């Protein structure tokens, strides 16, 4: 162990020989002056807050310093406690003068001797301390003679007294009672006896007099050590009201540095009680400064050279101070309060936030126009707050600037995050009450205001009702007289009650009085955030880890918050910490599985915005010093301080205060022959060495993340510039494409014989159509340059709705132009074919070739043949039959049951629209034309073997010519299933069925847990929608007219005939909530089932401000999205605007969602209504999609549409977290594209770059996880994940729970049992699949470890969540 005390005997306390070398004298004097000013200001604050006169300053400060010079607990030797206040006892003696207040170097307590004949003044007494009583224990319950008992008692006590006398004490103090006989025996021997002494007094005497505490006085008492002191005596003091108080003194103690007593005089009892608190705290602060100053001198700290420099530096970190004088602040609060009156006492100093008041004189210069403006009226200075001060006008900042919260000078505390301008506007602020922190300084103004209102109310109620004449009448006649009886009867009729006297009058209760009562009721249950005693602590997040440990990548000591009270609980002297936890060779890692030496570990203390890391190193060479040595090294300029031994006061310095210096003492630099201007506590490594071991303390700034929950409103932000650019490019492309099409048609017509009938008319029609096309294009181009579009002020002025609606209309016009191009190609192919047929008839005899009609300028032109027009269904009825048959077979694998007897509604070509009559007629004509062109082309086939037609300008999988919907022209893309959903939701059939569905108003009661439901209806599982289908009926009916584009829809309300009605009741209720939509064109048949149409529509109405039309437009385009790293293997897609994600669902997942869907809707509506935080990513729709085209390409899938949690975010890393360590590692090297990392990836990152969050964020996150997992567990849902995205630009963690449609089924139970048994390996890790309750518990615990709360100086002083 250590060869000596572990520290140097040199002390900086009252250092006499200071050297100029290394700036020692200058730094010492600066530190001394700074604390003197700080001490003066602190004492004035304490006296004012305790309603004491400032004149006590002249008594308290000298008294505190005298105590510090006398009392010095040494933890390394004989001290048991760190706090000096535990070694000082205060005795309050009301009366006398303040000059009588003094320190007694000894133990003083209120007690008298047992008998007046005993000595009351003894020099150098021998003191015996007894922890037992001196009485004879009589046997109770036995009948015996009194005389023998008395003889036994006398004999026993005589022996006890003899044993005590044999020890030759002068004073005996007994904890308990002493028999009168024993008292007399001891008095006869000249021994002074004091009995019934408190245990604390005995402990103090034992510590200070070096006496042993004797627990028994039997025959085995032995030879205990007796204590001694220089003098024992009693004194009586006159107190208030003519009383007297006797005190017992033990002065001149052997260990005088371990105990003392302060006699407080010069005031009443209550005043002295308050004074005791002030003196006690000043003593605590002064003693800390003695140790802190020693540490600062040992580490060559250089404080700011002047108060001005300090103020200039610190003002950057704090709010500007408010000037002096009586101030009337007019402000509008959220509650509508008109005025708040604030009376500020004149400042005697200029401070900078808590604990940094430096100047002791009043600053008279207020010329800064940004701070305030003054108007002198009648010689009085009145302040009018300027607009620039509004950000600092809240009561917290003003009070904080005027309050010292730290006992050390130069330390700067920042405003709590939720009280900053950024914090008040942050997204999580709404979950907390309007006033997060409580202080008397905040509430005084409100209380005074309410009390004044009450006083005015009392005045207005006084004498509001005049007294009855009977009460004022002087009765001089007989009580039986008629006048008296009449007056009495009238008095009784009016109520007959006597008004109470004015003093006892109780005013009616007002709302303000109720507020005041409520405040007072909880007044003492709150912690005052500006009470200095509440800040003598430090909360740190502690952890320990080693990359070489068997625990890696996990921590050896998991991060946990340690609350360290300065010189109290969880605190330890700095030297003791180094000796015990750094330099002791026998100290091992607290984690039992870890056998790695401590010098390979790193320990971290995290607080506020910084982290102090401790690492150990061993060297071959030892230090020559026998004590702990210390030095620093600058990381920026590589300067090194001299290596010096640690002084005794530094050894005793609080480790918690040392950490506080590291976190908040950024103003200190390093002195020396080559001084360093960088921050000593932030930019320097601090080293402590002993023998061949070195402990390194390093401060680093940390990255603190804010958290972002899924927003309650799913908003879409439109990039108008990008949208406009895309539209301009698109319309330019369409104009070019249209020009090419019409040019190609013109070339075809030019190749025709000029004498053909109708050729001239065709050219005229072509020119007319081309002119109309150009007109439409120009209209769109004109809209793109309209004032609404060009004026970007709309966006800035908040009128974005007008802007994006204008873009919507332009996009619709563009789609109609594309549709026009497709229809033009089809109609002209028809006309050219008719013309070619006429030409064939004219030239039938010479069998002329058709090759002269080909256009050499269009190499991509399509040659029409038997195989090229398979899209014409009317030409080949067998193909249609085959297609319908294949779809029927496909329906056999449907995910959900469809009706066997569908009530299909066959619609005409035009009744699927809500356009004007003319548009309906045009649509009908176009549809008829398309039907005609297919019939004519099929008739041409036998005679036309190589006719070259105009190619389709778009992909054949893009369907432009479907009937127009309700509000939005939608193009259906076979490669984008979301467009099928959008078209279905926009169809007139869906709108009609939805209106019918809402008119029925089905019940929406909450359903039980899916597991319970499955147990009671397990036999209904086969009653899926596979057996019945509205789509089959639609396809069978469409055989008669398969070529005509049509829409049809049904509400899914039919039931299988072979299932008993009672078993299908739940299914029937569920089916009534779904809507089916079928539609087709010449190339493809489509089917879409919309699950819970009304419920999802209601949910979208709550969370989607863009409305249903915006939702449909968002779904109209989508792109495939390959999210790698996950294990589900599901296909993903994202809408083109990136707002929604489409995920493929399995058949079982759909069934599970249908079972707990009502509870899901109820929970989401509850979260929205109550404003409680939730992490559930909002599912806004679930759909079944089926289609089959002419090439037999078939798609059958179930899609879930949910909000994109990372919308409008720049996410650098993504994590999918389940709380499990089994197979939860992704190796990025083996992945391509977008990678989603898992739990083990996060753990590996956590040791080096943890995810730190603020306390308020952790509170919201914990509440959200608790609420959501309880809901999911109640639904028997498990295997959900927390998706985390790191948004480095905004410093936010974007969070959301996804994949919460998986319940605990029998196959999951089997997987759990197999994995727990270890049959398939897994290295003893818990399985990823457990029961919902176990999964919830594991999930919560894991998220607590993943997201680490960083405490600040205000931890534990604010109110909790409120929603």
TrEMBL record:
<dbReference type="GO" id="GO:0005524">
    <property type="term" value="F:ATP binding"/>
</dbReference>
<keyword id="KW-0067">ATP-binding</keyword>
<feature type="compositionally biased region" description="Basic and acidic residues">
    <location>
        <begin position="837"/>
        <end position="849"/>
    </location>
</feature>
<protein>
    <recommendedName>
        <fullName>1-phosphatidylinositol-3-phosphate 5-kinase</fullName>
        <ecNumber>2.7.1.150</ecNumber>
    </recommendedName>
</protein>
<dbReference type="InterPro" id="IPR027409">
    <property type="entry name" value="GroEL-like_apical_dom_sf"/>
</dbReference>
<feature type="compositionally biased region" description="Low complexity">
    <location>
        <begin position="1040"/>
        <end position="1054"/>
    </location>
</feature>
<feature type="region of interest" description="Disordered">
    <location>
        <begin position="837"/>
        <end position="927"/>
    </location>
</feature>
<feature type="compositionally biased region" description="Polar residues">
    <location>
        <begin position="896"/>
        <end position="916"/>
    </location>
</feature>
<dbReference type="GO" id="GO:0000285">
    <property type="term" value="F:1-phosphatidylinositol-3-phosphate 5-kinase activity"/>
</dbReference>
<dbReference type="InterPro" id="IPR044769">
    <property type="entry name" value="PIKfyve_PIPKc"/>
</dbReference>
<dbReference type="GO" id="GO:0046854">
    <property type="term" value="P:phosphatidylinositol phosphate biosynthetic process"/>
</dbReference>
<feature type="compositionally biased region" description="Basic and acidic residues">
    <location>
        <begin position="327"/>
        <end position="338"/>
    </location>
</feature>
<keyword id="KW-0808">Transferase</keyword>
<feature type="compositionally biased region" description="Basic and acidic residues">
    <location>
        <begin position="1017"/>
        <end position="1028"/>
    </location>
</feature>
<keyword id="KW-0418">Kinase</keyword>
<dbReference type="InterPro" id="IPR027484">
    <property type="entry name" value="PInositol-4-P-5-kinase_N"/>
</dbReference>
<dbReference type="Pfam" id="PF00118">
    <property type="entry name" value="Cpn60_TCP1"/>
</dbReference>
<feature type="domain" description="PIPK">
    <location>
        <begin position="1024"/>
        <end position="1347"/>
    </location>
</feature>
<feature type="region of interest" description="Disordered">
    <location>
        <begin position="308"/>
        <end position="338"/>
    </location>
</feature>
<feature type="compositionally biased region" description="Basic and acidic residues">
    <location>
        <begin position="917"/>
        <end position="927"/>
    </location>
</feature>
<keyword id="KW-0547">Nucleotide-binding</keyword>
<dbReference type="GO" id="GO:0010008">
    <property type="term" value="C:endosome membrane"/>
</dbReference>
<feature type="compositionally biased region" description="Basic and acidic residues">
    <location>
        <begin position="1060"/>
        <end position="1069"/>
    </location>
</feature>
<dbReference type="InterPro" id="IPR027483">
    <property type="entry name" value="PInositol-4-P-4/5-kinase_C_sf"/>
</dbReference>
<dbReference type="InterPro" id="IPR002423">
    <property type="entry name" value="Cpn60/GroEL/TCP-1"/>
</dbReference>
<dbReference type="Pfam" id="PF01504">
    <property type="entry name" value="PIP5K"/>
</dbReference>
<feature type="region of interest" description="Disordered">
    <location>
        <begin position="999"/>
        <end position="1069"/>
    </location>
</feature>
<dbReference type="InterPro" id="IPR002498">
    <property type="entry name" value="PInositol-4-P-4/5-kinase_core"/>
</dbReference>
């Amino acid at each position: 162990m250590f060869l000596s005390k572990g520290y140097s005997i040199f002390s900086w306390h009252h250092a006499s020989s200071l050297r100029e070398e290394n700036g020692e004298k200058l730094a010492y004097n600066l530190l001394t002056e700074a604390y003197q000013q700080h001490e003066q200001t602190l004492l004035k604050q304490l006296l004012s807050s305790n309603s004491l006169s400032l004149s006590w300053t002249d008594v308290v400060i000298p008294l505190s310093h005298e105590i510090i010079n006398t009392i010095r607990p040494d933890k390394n030797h004989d001290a048991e406690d760190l706090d000096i206040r535990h070694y000082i006892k205060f005795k309050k003696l009301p009366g006398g003068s303040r000059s009588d207040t003094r320190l007694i170097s000894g133990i003083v307590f209120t007690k008298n001797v047992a008998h007046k004949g005993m000595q009351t003044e003894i020099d150098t007494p021998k003191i015996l301390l007894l922890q037992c009583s001196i009485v004879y224990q009589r046997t109770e319950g036995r009948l015996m003679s009194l005389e023998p008992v008395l003889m036994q008692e006398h004999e026993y006590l005589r022996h006890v007294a003899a044993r005590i006398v044999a020890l030759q004490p002068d004073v005996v103090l007994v904890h308990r009672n002493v028999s009168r006989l024993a008292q007399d025996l001891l008095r006869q021997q000249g021994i002074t006896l004091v009995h019934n002494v408190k245990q604390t007094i005995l402990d103090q005497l034992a510590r200070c007099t070096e006496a042993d505490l004797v627990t028994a006085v039997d025959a085995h008492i032995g030879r205990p050590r007796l204590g001694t002191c220089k003098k024992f005596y009693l004194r009586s003091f006159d107190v208030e009201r003519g009383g007297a108080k006797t005190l017992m003194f033990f002065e001149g103690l052997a260990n005088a540095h371990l105990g003392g007593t302060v006699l407080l005089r010069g005031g009443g009892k209550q005043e002295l009680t308050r004074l005791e608190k002030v003196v006690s705290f000043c003593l605590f602060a002064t003693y800390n400064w003695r140790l802190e100053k020693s540490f600062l001198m040992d580490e060559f700290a250089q404080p700011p050279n002047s108060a001005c420099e300090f103020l200039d530096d610190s003002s950057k970190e704090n709010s500007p101070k408010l000037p002096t004088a009586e101030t009337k602040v007019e402000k509008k609060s959220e509650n509508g309060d008109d005025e708040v009156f604030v009376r500020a006492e004149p400042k005697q100093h200029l401070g900078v936030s808590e604990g940094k008041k430096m100047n002791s004189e009043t600053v008279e210069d207020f010329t800064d126009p940004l701070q305030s403006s003054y108007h002198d009226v009648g010689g009085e200075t009145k302040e009018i707050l300027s607009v620039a001060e509004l950000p600092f006008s809240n009561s917290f900042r003003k009070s904080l600037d005027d309050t010292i919260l730290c006992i050390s000078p130069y330390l700067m505390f920042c405003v709590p995050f939720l009280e900053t301008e950024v914090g008040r506007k942050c997204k999580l602020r709404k979950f907390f009450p309007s006033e997060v922190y409580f202080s008397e300084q905040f509430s005084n103004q409100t209380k005074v205001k309410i009390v004044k209102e009450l006083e005015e109310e009392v005045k207005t109620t006084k004498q509001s009702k005049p007294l009855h004449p009977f009460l004022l009448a002087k009765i001089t006649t007989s009580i039986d007289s008629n006048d008296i009886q009449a007056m009495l009867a009238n008095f009784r009729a009016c109520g007959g009650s006597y008004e109470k006297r004015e003093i006892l009058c109780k005013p009616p209760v007002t709302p303000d009085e109720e507020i005041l009562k409520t405040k007072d009721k909880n007044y003492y249950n709150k912690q005052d955030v500006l009470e200095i005693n509440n800040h003598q602590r430090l909360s740190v997040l502690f952890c320990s880890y080693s990359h070489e440990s068997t625990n890696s990548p996990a921590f050896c000591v998991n991060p946990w918050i340690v609350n360290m009270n300065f010189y109290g609980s969880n605190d330890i002297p700095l030297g003791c910490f180094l000796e015990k936890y750094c330099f002791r060779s026998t100290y091992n890692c607290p984690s039992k599985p870890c056998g790695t030496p401590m010098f390979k570990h790193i320990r971290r203390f995290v607080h506020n915005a910084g982290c102090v890391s401790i690492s150990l190193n061993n060297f071959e060479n030892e230090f020559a010093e026998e004590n702990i040595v210390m030095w620093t090294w600058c990381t920026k300029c590589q300067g090194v301080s001299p290596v010096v031994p640690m002084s005794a006061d530094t050894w005793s310095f609080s480790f918690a205060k040392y950490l506080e210096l590291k976190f908040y003492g950024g103003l200190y630099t390093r002195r020396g022959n080559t001084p360093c201007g960088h921050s000593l506590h932030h930019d320097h490594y601090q080293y402590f060495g002993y023998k061949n071991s070195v402990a390194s303390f390093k401060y680093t700034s940390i990255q603190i993340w804010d958290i972002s929950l899924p927003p309650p409103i799913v908003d879409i932000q439109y990039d108008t510039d990008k949208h406009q650019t895309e539209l301009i490019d698109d319309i330019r492309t369409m104009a070019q494409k249209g020009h090419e099409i019409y040019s190609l048609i013109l070339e075809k017509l030019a190749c025709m014989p000029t004498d053909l009938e109708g050729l001239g008319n065709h050219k005229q029609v072509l020119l007319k159509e081309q002119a109309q096309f150009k007109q439409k294009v120009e209209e769109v181009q004109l809209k793109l340059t309209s004032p609404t579009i060009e004026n970007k002020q709309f966006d800035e002025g908040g009128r974005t709705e007008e802007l994006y609606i204008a873009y919507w209309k332009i996009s619709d016009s563009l789609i109609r132009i594309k549709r026009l191009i497709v229809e033009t190609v089809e109609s002209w192919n028809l006309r050219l074919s008719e013309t070619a047929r006429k030409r064939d008839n004219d030239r039938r005899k010479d069998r002329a070739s058709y090759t002269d009609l080909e256009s050499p300028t269009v190499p991509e032109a399509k040659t029409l043949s038997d195989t090229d027009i398979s899209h014409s269904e009317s030409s080949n009825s067998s193909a249609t039959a085959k297609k319908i048959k294949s779809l029927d077979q496909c329906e056999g694998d449907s995910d959900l049951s469809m009706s066997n007897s569908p009530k299909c509604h066959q619609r005409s070509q035009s009744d699927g629209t809500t356009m004007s009559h003319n548009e309906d007629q045009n649509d009908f004509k176009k549809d008829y034309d398309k039907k005609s062109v297919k019939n004519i082309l099929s008739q041409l086939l036998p005679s036309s073997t190589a006719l070259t037609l105009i190619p389709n300008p778009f992909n054949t999988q893009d369907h432009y010519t479907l009937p127009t919907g309700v509000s939005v022209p939608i193009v259906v893309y076979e490669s984008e299933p979301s467009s099928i959903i959008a078209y279905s939701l926009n169809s007139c059939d869906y709108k009609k069925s939805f209106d019918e569905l809402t008119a029925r108003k089905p019940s929406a009661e909450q359903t039980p847990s899916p597991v319970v439901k499955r147990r009671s209806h397990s036999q209904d599982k086969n009653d899926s929608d596979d057996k019945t289908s509205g789509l089959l009926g639609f396809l069978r009916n469409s055989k008669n007219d398969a070529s005509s584009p049509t829409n049809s829809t049904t509400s899914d309300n039919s039931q299988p005939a072979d299932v008993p009605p009672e078993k299908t009741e739940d299914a029937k209720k569920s089916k009534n909530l779904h809507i089916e939509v079928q539609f087709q064109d010449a190339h493809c048949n489509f089917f879409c089932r919309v699950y819970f149409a009304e419920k999802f529509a209601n949910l979208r109405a709550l969370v989607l401000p863009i409305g249903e039309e915006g939702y449909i437009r968002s779904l109209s385009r989508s792109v495939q999205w390959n999210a790698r790293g996950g294990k589900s293997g599901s296909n993903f897609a994202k809408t083109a605007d990136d707002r929604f994600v489409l995920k493929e669902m399995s058949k079982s997942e759909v069934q599970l969602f249908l079972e707990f869907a009502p509870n899901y809707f109820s929970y989401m509506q509850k979260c929205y209504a109550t404003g409680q935080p939730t992490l559930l990513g909002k599912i806004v729709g679930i759909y079944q999609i089926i289609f089959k085209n002419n090439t037999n390409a078939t798609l059958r899938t179930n899609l879930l549409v949910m909000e994109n949690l990372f919308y409008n975010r720049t996410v650098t890393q993504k994590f999918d977290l389940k709380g499990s360590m089994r197979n939860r590692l992704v190796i990025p090297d083996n992945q391509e594209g977008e990678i989603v990392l898992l739990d083990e990836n996060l753990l590996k990152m956590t040791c080096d770059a943890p995810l730190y969050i603020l306390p308020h964020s952790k509170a919201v996150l914990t509440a959200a996880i608790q609420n959501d997992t309880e809901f999911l567990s109640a639904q028997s849902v498990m295997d959900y994940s927390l998706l985390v995205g790191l948004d480095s630009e905004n410093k936010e963690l974007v969070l959301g729970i996804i994949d919460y449609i998986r319940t605990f089924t029998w196959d999951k139970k089997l997987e759990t049992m197999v994995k727990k048994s270890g049959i398939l390996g897994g290295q003893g890790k818990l399985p990823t699949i457990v029961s919902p309750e176990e999964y919830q518990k594991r999930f919560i615990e894991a998220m607590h470890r993943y997201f680490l709360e960083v405490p600040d100086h205000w931890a534990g002083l604010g109110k909790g969540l409120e929603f």
